[in-house]
């Protein structure tokens, strides 16, 4: 992999952090109605939550234009990334995925004995779809596409991706991770979920962790053909890992379209502010379509990470192509102002 990361080798005092910009969390959520629903749900915690799971599945199915047997829930999309990897790679095989990309599913596939065939992103940080299609061979068990991509924040053109998915899914299932999709102004038209409704072997993952502001509450889902869902749920259970509070919260959150619209708006304002501030210092930022952005820094990555945390600002530092990069999540406007001021001080 060309992607590496400097992890903090010092204790992190979360309560002392003045800007927590390291984990692509939504600083505004959950919505007030969601908090209320969760508080009320606590009292029914003696019961298993299968009924709530079915309610949420029905709501998601309606939103996505499919029947409920196309939906599988998990405690966060991580659970589903891992379950797909566990069930697909138990007998080895290879996974085709971009480099750099989000490593969760790829790492689990490799742990199961699978081989990763990395395909570098194009010069404008899109997935190199022709190269990914050419990489398919008789051992390929899955293609993973993260769109928009993490940690680059970049996007792959929806029309190109649709064409690719329609064609390549004839040969192997395609997992499209849409964790950040809802930060786009035209999310519905950029989603690959329509291909699932057409019967294509595409698995679309979504999460309540980002635009819904529920990262700590752990709810995510995949949309795939009933046969593909069945191939997973025949081996591992779906709703047994979910808790009624989070499910009731997610059910309430499905109705919070105004809240999500506000989050989307604040996110793009903060992105604009941060991009301008950092670009005016001479840095080259990859255009972001997500709730974070990444840019190469001049300072030593490990020292930069330590200095930012010492000032109470949490960020991530990646090593891509032997260069050190700062990835910063969008917090509130005042957190972004702190980030910019701290960045200036640390790199001065
Ligand atoms: N997919 C991508 C691309 C992510 O960036 C993340 C989290 O940052 C996840 C999936 C997992 O999120 P969760 O397990 O909270 O749904």
From TrEMBL:
The keyword Nucleotide-binding does not apply. InterPro entries: Aminotransferase_I/II_large, HistidinolP_aminotransfase, PyrdxlP-dep_Trfase, PyrdxlP-dep_Trfase_major, PyrdxlP-dep_Trfase_small, TAT_signal. Keywords: Aminotransferase, Pyridoxal phosphate, Signal, Transferase. CDD domains: AAT_like. GO terms for molecular function: pyridoxal phosphate binding; transaminase activity. The keyword Isomerase does not apply. Residues 18-342 form the Aminotransferase class I/classII large domain. It holds the Pfam family Aminotran_1_2. SUPFAM superfamilies: PLP-dependent transferases. It comes from the Bacteria. Belongs to the class-II pyridoxal-phosphate-dependent aminotransferase family. Histidinol-phosphate aminotransferase subfamily. This is Histidinol-phosphate aminotransferase. It comes from Algoriphagus halophilus. The lineage of its organism: Bacteria, Pseudomonadati, Bacteroidota, Cytophagia, Cytophagales.
């Amino acid at each position: 992999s060309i992607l590496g990361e400097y992890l903090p080798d010092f204790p992190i005092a979360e309560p002392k952090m003045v800007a927590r910009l390291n984990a692509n969390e939504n600083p505004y959520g959950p919505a007030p109605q969601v908090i209320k629903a969760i508080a009320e749900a606590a009292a029914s915690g003696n019961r298993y939550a299968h009924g709530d799971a079915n309610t949420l599945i029905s709501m998601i199915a309606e939103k996505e234009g499919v029947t409920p047997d196309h939906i599988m829930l998990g405690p966060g999309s991580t659970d589903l990334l891992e379950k797909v990897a566990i069930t697909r790679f138990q007998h080895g095989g290879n996974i085709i995925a971009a480099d750099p990309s989000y490593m969760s599913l790829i790492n689990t596939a490799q742990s199961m004995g699978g081989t990763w065939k990395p395909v570098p992103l194009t010069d404008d940080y899109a997935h190199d779809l022709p190269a990914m299609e050419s990489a398919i061979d008789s051992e390929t068990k899955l293609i993973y596409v993260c769109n928009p991509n993490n940690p680059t924040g970049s996007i792959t053109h929806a029309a190109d991706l649709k064409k690719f998915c329609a064609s390549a899914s004839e040969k192997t299932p395609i997992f499209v991770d849409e964790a950040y999709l809802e930060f786009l102004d035209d999310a519905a038209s950029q989603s690959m979920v329509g291909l699932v409704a057409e019967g294509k072997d595409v698995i679309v993952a979504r999460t309540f962790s980002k635009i819904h502001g529920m990262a700590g509450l752990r709810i995510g889902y995949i949309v795939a053909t009933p046969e593909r869902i069945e191939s997973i749920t025949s081996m591992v259970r779906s709703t047994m890992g979910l808790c009624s509070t989070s499910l009731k919260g997610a059910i309430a959150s499905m109705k919070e379209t105004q809240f999500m619209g506000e989050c989307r708006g604040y996110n793009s304002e903060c992105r604009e502010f941060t991009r301008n501030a950092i670009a005016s210092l001479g840095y080259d930022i990859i255009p972001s379509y997500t709730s974070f952005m990444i840019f190469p820094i001049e300072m030593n990555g490990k020292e930069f990470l330590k200095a930012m945390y010492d000032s109470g600002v949490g960020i991530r530092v990646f090593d891509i192509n032997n260069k050190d990069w700062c990835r910063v999540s969008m917090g509130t406007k005042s957190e972004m102002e702190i980030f910019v001021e701290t960045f200036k001080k640390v790199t001065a």
